[in-house]
Amino acid sequence: MGLIDRRMGIFLAGLFVLTVAIPYGNLAMSGQPVPSYVVSLLGKYLCYALLAVALDLVWGYCGILSLGHGAFFALGGYAMGMHLMREIGDRGVYANPDLPDFMVFLNYEALPWYWHGFDMFWFACIMVLAVPGLLAFVFGWFAFRSRVTGVYLSIITQAMTYALMLAFFRNEMGFGGNNGLTDFKDVLGFDLQSDVTRAWLFGLSGLALAAGLLIAKAITDSKLGKVLIAVRDAESRTRFLGYRVEEYKLFVFVVSAMMAGVAGALYVPQVGIINPGEFSPANSIEIVIWVALGGRGTLVGAALGAILVAGAKTLLTGWLPEVWLFALGALFVLVTIFLPKGVLGLIEGRQKGQSASRERAAARADGVDLEVRPEELRGEEVKS
Amino acid sequence: MHFLLRLLGRVLGLCVLLIAPFMVQAQSFDDLVRALPEGKFDDRAKVIAQIAQTGDDRAADTLTALLEGNLHVLKADDSLVVISKRGTQTIAADALSGEDRGVVKKRGSKKIRVNNALRRELRAAIGRLTLAHPDPVRRLAAAEAAFKAADPSQIALLHSVLETEENKKIRGALTEAVAASQLADAEATTADKLDAISVLRKRGDQEALTLLSPLVQSDDPALAEAAEEAVVKIEQSKRLWGLAQNVWFGMSLGSVLLLAAIGLAITFGVMGVINMAHGELVMLGAYTTFAVQEAIRGAFPELFDWSLLIAAPLAFLVAGGVGVAIERGCVRYLYGRPLETLLATWGISLILQQTVRSIFGPNNREVGNPSWMSGAFELGQMTITYNRLWILLFALAVFFVLLFVLKKTPIGLQMRAVTQNRQMAADMGIRTGWVDAMTFGLGAGIAGLAGVALSQIDNVSPNLGQSYIVDSFMVVVFGGAGSIWGTLAAAFSLGIANKFMEPWTGAVLAKILVLVFIILFIQKRPRGLFAVRGRAVDQ
Fold it and tell me: With contacts defined as CB-CB under 8 Å, which chain B residues touch A291?
């Protein structure tokens, strides 16, 4: 079926309907059945979904459990945030044409060197890809070459995002300290508060998610993808067969980081703020539960899981704020113990089980006894 | 009869003589002070001498105010006041009773003037008054003030006080004051000054250094040489003490890291279970301490000093019990799947956090220090606080008890057997499931003990554990999973490295640099400082 199998087809069709219907309901229909905040909220979920797909690419298909994907997301967000800061120009509180408000407040003399170029949109777009990609490349280069795997890798990715969080909290870093970057006015001349711009951002998020899914699918379906799965399931054996394991891992890690960066860049204009809290290890580990809930190694499942959990979070923190952490905690425990293949695995497994039992019934009617082997029911073993 | 009368007269006279000074003092300190504004400078000098002789407690303060030009006469009612500045306002207080007289206008009062001769007299009188004070603390303070003043005119006075002073510490301070004054004295002989230099060299602190460094440029070559030698020596010792202080701070931080990580060294290091709820078990220990202290405050306030000793075993049981529950209820289904364990225990940590938040509220809780943990003492030129010292000792005690349990007790033997070869251990009749639960419970219980100690120096809030989780994993990974000694070495070396970087980089950047260092270090030695040797290649 090529790139678009059944599961991908259904999801993409649903996504298409959503990205058309939501802005339509917000902008064109009388009575505005979709309020504006819902557009931004759903746009945020789509960014999360893209982030989850990025993580699924490395965790589900290559066995790299990154607890630092929030860092790539946040770096992409900061790159976009810096551009939006520069677009404010002299409309800030201090009306300084050269420096963003927080720099005036912190007595900066001139723009730090790393802020130069961010007044150009294309430059910011390159940085959205380049900065997370470069960090992933350097980090992965060191980590994979010296064969840091499994839990150790997870822990140092967590340390990486923790160190970045501490760094971005410092005012001296020149990224606004703990307030982060905010008060954005417009992007490419379009007012960020207007419904039309928000609808466009929402549509772009949907497009980016679809593109991310297709890219990830293309990678995993290719021969390279088969090697990645081999690395996930038996890294040493793959290496002994002559594959340069670390190069495959590095490639997929960098692609995934760039994808996360794009998600962050789309997230920031819709939320209107980026601060160092995005780097917190707790955020990164929450991404993992999206993927685990939806179904690891399914791509579509990861996107679904992100939307489900983020939606539940919005609802629960609104209704019963006390309960949310209990629910999230229970989700972690229950999914890992009872749903190792996630919701998608459960649904598809049940469908498979039904069709299998139908076949068995048919076979029995024909007088043939079909032995059910345990491997078939369990499906392929996913090694962690 | 005549004789008797004479005797009586003498006894009476003696009594009067004995009592007189007290009576005079009682009456006349106030009168004498009131007489201060009158007459010329010469009259004032006599009054000052008399005030000094009264030995009244207030004498020193009043004379100091006079010396500093703060003793004024209020124009409104001619009363004497001591003025002080508060912001831009001038506040007056009655010179005799200390009663507050409110704000004084700019020209509302008149200063009692003194000249240079009077100032000298005043300084001597103040010095004599406080140097002869019955309270040794005041005497020591006066001797130190004399050292700081370094006034040549007080040398004679200091010498006279030295003859009668018996307290060794005060004698030392007086000798140093003499030395400081002699260095400032243009008429002192070279021999005297050389003696003074050697006294100051022994003192060896920043103040001695400021006194000695100008002498290096002295015209007298002998003096210059001695001074330079002393300066070099003092700077050397200062550097050494600075180093020692940094090492101490580092060990103190290291002991905190050790406490936080040592439980993890068992659950992660020995068992290989990634327990992300470890920090929350530490938090449970801290909250147990809080609960125990609340109970003691309510029921037996006199037991407060014992609260930590009561809390420690309870915290061990609470955290250990929760640990056993986690192992039995969740972790045991996930052995061999480390990444899933990580996620599930993370979920448990969220649940524990929210539970504590629901019960105790989201704010910081106040945990008190028992009396034996507050305060500090001086060791040479460094200050050591008791709570840090006790925490260091506690951390080491926990460490060695744990080491003993693992190496010398039957349960420790079983734990090691199960982690090394589960199948073989089971064949030998060890109940591996029970041992797993006990091992996990031991690690969790130690986390609870850490919570008792950390409650003394950190905020007790539901987020307490979060701030330690990354650090403690770093320590265990850096030391080498499975090596208890490695954890000890890693905790102290990371603590000391952190504190040595702080002066140059600031606390946050030092922490970031340490994290980056560990990340790089793991690339080089993925199995940590003290790698456990064995045949296991992958996982």
Answer: none
Q: How many CB pairs under 8 A join A and B?
A: 127
- Among partner residues A169, A236, A333, which is closest to B347 by beta-carbon distance? A333
Per-residue pLDDT of chain A (384 residues; tens, 9 = 90+): 567 888 889 999 999 999 888 888 888 887 778 888 889 999 999 999 999 999 999 999 999 999 999 999 999 999 999 999 988 888 888 888 888 888 888 888 888 888 988 889 999 999 999 999 999 999 999 889 888 887 888 888 988 999 999 899 988 888 888 888 988 888 888 888 888 899 999 999 999 999 999 999 999 999 999 999 999 999 989 999 999 999 999 999 999 999 999 999 999 999 999 999 999 988 999 999 899 988 888 899 999 999 999 999 999 888 888 888 898 899 889 888 888 888 888 888 787 777 767 666 666 655 544 444 444 444 344 444
Q: Do both B203 and B292 map to the same domain?
A: no
Residues of A in contact with B537 (CB under 8 A): 236
Q: Are residues B311 and B442 in the same domain?
A: yes
Do A146 and B526 make contact, defined as CB atoms within 8 angstroms? yes
In a domain, B509, yes or no: no
Residue A360 burial (CB < 10 Å; 0-12/13-18/19+)? middle
Binding-face residues of B in 237-296 toward A, CB within 8 A: 274, 276
Tell me if B344 and A65 make a contact (CB, 8 A cut-off). no
Q: B347 at the A interface (CB within 8 A)? A: yes
Using CA atoms, how far apart are residues A284 and A68, in angstroms rounded to an integer?
6
Q: Which residues neighbour B135 within 8 Å (Cβ) at sequence distance 6 or greater?
A: none
Amino acid identity, position B129:
L
Among B268, B322, B470, pick the best mutation site for testing chain A contact (most A Cβ within 10 A): B470
Closest CA to A213 of A17, A23, A56: A56
* Domain ranges across chain A: 6-340, 343-384
From its phi and psi, is residue B69 left (phi > 0), alpha (psi between -120 and 50) or beta?
left
Close Cβ partners of B180 (under 8 Å, ≥ 6 residues apart): B146, B147, B148, B150, B196, B200, B211
Together in a domain, B268 and B325: yes
Contacts 24+ apart (CB under 8 A), B463-468: B463/B353, B464/B279, B464/B282, B464/B283, B464/B286, B465/B277, B465/B278, B465/B279, B465/B280, B465/B281, B465/B282, B465/B283, B465/B349, B465/B352, B465/B353, B466/A282, B466/B279, B466/B353, B467/B279, B468/B260, B468/B278, B468/B279, B468/B282
> Touching check for A320 and chain B: CB below 8 Å?
no
CA separation, residue B202 to residues A284, B172, B176 (Å): 58, 11, 9
Provide the residue range defining the domain that includes B181: 132-219
Q: Say whether B342 and A329 touch across the interface (CB within 8 A).
A: no
Query: What residues pair up with A191 in beta bridges, in sequence order?
Result: A186
Cβ-contact B509, B469 below 8 angstroms: no
Q: What is d(CA A339, CA A128) in angstroms, rounded to the nearest whole number?
A: 35
Q: Are both B211 and B251 inside the same structural domain? A: no
The DSSP element (H or E) to which B279 belongs, if any, is: helix B278-299
The answer to whether the CB atoms of B342 and A235 lie below 8 A apart is: no
Q: What is the distance between the alpha carbons of residues A326 and A361, in angstroms, rounded to a whole number?
A: 43
- Of the partner residues A155, A288, A333, the one whose CB lies closest to the CB of residue B477: A155
Q: Do B526 and A147 touch (CB under 8 A)?
A: yes
Q: Which CATH class is domain A6-340?
A: mainly alpha
Cβ contact (<8 Å) for A325 and B350? yes
Instruction: Read off the pTM.
Output: 0.75
**Alpha carbon distance A108, A99 (integer Å):** 8
Contact B74, B93 (CB under 8 A): no
Which chain A residues touch B339 with a CB distance below 8 Å?
A: 65, 150-151, 154, 384
